[in-house]
Amino acid sequence: MNSSALPWCFMLFFLSITFTFNSFSSSATPDTYYDHCSSTVLGSSSKEVRLAKFPLPRTHKGYYTGGDNLLNQNSYSYYPGFSNSIFLRTKAVYGTDVIGLFKVELVLAFQVGETYREQRPRRSSITFELNGFYSETSGKLCVFGPASTYSKDGGLLKLFGVLKLYNLTKSTNVTSLISGTLESLSSDNEEAHFDTISMLFLPQMNYTYTYVSEDSKDRFYGIDDPVPQSLSLSSLPTQTFCSIVSEAVNQFNLKYSKGCNISEKKCNPLDKGLGYVPSIMSLSEIDCSEKEERMRVLVEFPNGSYVNYYQSFNPNMTLIGEGSWDESKNQLLIVACRFLGMTQSFADAHLGDCSMKLSLRFPKVWSIKGASSIVGQVWSNKTQNEFGYFDKIMFQSARDRMGGISDVSSLKYEYTKIDLASKSCPKPDKSKTKGKLFPTGFSYDMRVDMSVKKSKEEVGWGYFVPISVGEEFYQLSNSIGSEEPSNFNTSGPVSISYNIDLTLYMGGLHSSNTSSRSYDRFEALAEGLYDDETGSLCMIGCRNIGSINDSLDCEILVKLQFPPKNKRNADRIKGSINSTREKSDPLYFELIDLSANAYYSDEASIWRMDAEIIMVLISTTLSCVFVGLQLFHVKRHPDVLPLTSLVMLSILTLGHMIPLVLNFEALFFQHSSRRSLLYRSGGWIEANEVIVRVVGMVAFLFQFRLLLITWSARRGNGNQKGTWVSEKKVLFVVLPLYAAGALVAVMANWGDNNESDAVMVSSSFTSSLTSYKPHSLWGDLKSYAGLVLDGFLLPQILLNMLWNSRERTLSFGFYIGNTFVRLLPHAYDLYRAHNNFHHYDGSYIYANPGADFYSSAWDVVIPLGGLLFALIIYLQQKFGGRFIFPRRFRESEVYEKVPVVSDA
What we know:
About 25% of the residues lie in helices and about 25% in strands. It has about 900 residues and is α+β, with helices and mostly antiparallel strands. Helix 9 runs antiparallel to helix 10 (about 775-790).
């Protein structure tokens, strides 16, 4: 084809594409705003300058129904919340010639999800870019615009819709609700057509708390018993009001009154037509004011035993509430309003019937009857004959969701079953366990993951976690164990309480049929006695047996036997759960056998630290030997002293000096929990610290002596000016190199912390026993200093290149030995990483991750680099400092050997 014809071909191609796209768009694009919105909000000419202050909130969160042929509400989402959530964001607002009328640009986004079409993942979310007008006077809004999605055959599909919203008023309260619809502008026979989507939004403009004002708090009292002692806001770990329900979902177990028949309507807080009685409740925050101590919440009563993060929003099981904190009684008071006017559409929904009341508090005393961090009650202020009345319902948190609440000093655990446990369990024979060591009540090993068996057949799994030991609470947040109080008396058995949670195959508790893989929960609290001289634990347990308040089965005996810690191959932890009822009793269950692997972290850490401190002593002693070899070498060959790099010797000297300057115990064991681990080891730290310091001091003095005589040799002879010039050149090379490396370490630290913050935000709805700790900049710089020390031969290599010397400046034992000393920790770290050691807890002495770069990659790269440097030194001392360069560049300087008189 003639090249001159190519431009015409491209022009015809683009014209055809443009014509096709315009033809497609014109069939669905609306002609004017007035065709679709004039009956809702009359438009007007707008001004060009955007308003700095918006009459609408920046964002609105809402929920939708409908549009099933367009939106797959069952698509999987990686984000917590309701699967039918939508977000309305205000992009820009312009004034008009009409007062109270504004031109607006909005974005309507349906929640992100994933669907699979043609075996490929596709985004199921759809975002509409909308333009139109908002009338502040009438509270109505009408906008229209396009969106893009994928068609059934996988192609790009252009959508057009018109959004109409009502009740966008200036002032709002708990009964205010924004409702509206999104309608397709495509004809019914077009692929871009979608069914009408109805939606509702929770208003945010000028919200006024009306039901929980100071004057209305008295309505909560007068019908209930006095409120038990509760924790104040200031005593909570977070000490903030908005943290009470700050998680994405806060689940609570419901407990109905004894006289309540849960099949009756008066016991159900929801409409009986839903066909179920809820067993759980959840609270999620809408917005909160820390200053006013006011909040808005979603109160949900889902159908199931747990809250599904990705379920669809259902107004029939959800209420909108507003709450405030009552300082006098230390509890959160909530008034909740129901959704009314609900049909199949959200368009006619409104809020009313605010007769449901809730109170929520943090109990000051825990016991075997209840060890939840949050408890409360739900009731109706209607009379029994009124529609919507229900009996009072108690609720409690499903777990200790307030992380760190056990640290609160005013929180107490009240033992009530200790005498019964003492009578139910025979006293162990201490003569059989003489000389054996067992875990203390506060150690990490008291937390056990159990395998559950019955009749030698596995029927489930679960865990045992201590709640309190003696008068102190067990600290769940500690990865090593709970710190033992200084005044704790360990002589004899100690009172202890446990949270027991077992997951059993359906029928595993009351039947031998375990073929079904459906699961059941066995949740219980237990308290009793633990003897750390025999490893024997015996407790009385109380388990929940239904949704009726105070329905507990406390005729349960729980036993555990821990194996000794000072045995090389520890036995398994063994135990049992036994019902003390008669076999004819409906609550009786067969004996449950428990077993678990005993991996004692404290003992393993102590053994590891014993080995590591020996390795530190060996390494430091070898350093003394290798520096001594160099001192002996320069004494026999004093003429090589001026050729030794002062930068290299300074790096090595600082490497020995810094550990001596910094306190040994403060360097490695900064936290009290880590110190307690050392105290349990028998006090070896005091003796070995002295030995490490003495040997380290000798190594430092040897290294400093070598630096001093090298410096003296340089200064004592005026003919060695060339070596000073070369040393300065080395310094000019390595200083920018080291500075650049430090800058990279700082940038990497900044990037890692930013990425971790993003991960924390995306997973903030989950709770964990441990909290994330960001990378310390000082820690990363210390690790980088260790990397510089690993490459201590670099300045000598550069000096050899500049001076082009073949002299044996460094003895073979010095540079090979010190390279070996620097690289051995990386070999040990590889071994440690592949031998099931616990994660870094600050107790590492040798190959400390806080003193160098340690990972599978670094443990290979750094030794290879160190060996390469040692090989280069060897070849330089044999073939010349510039052996790697072409021959014509090797003899640019002439070295004249000048005798040096040693003052050694």
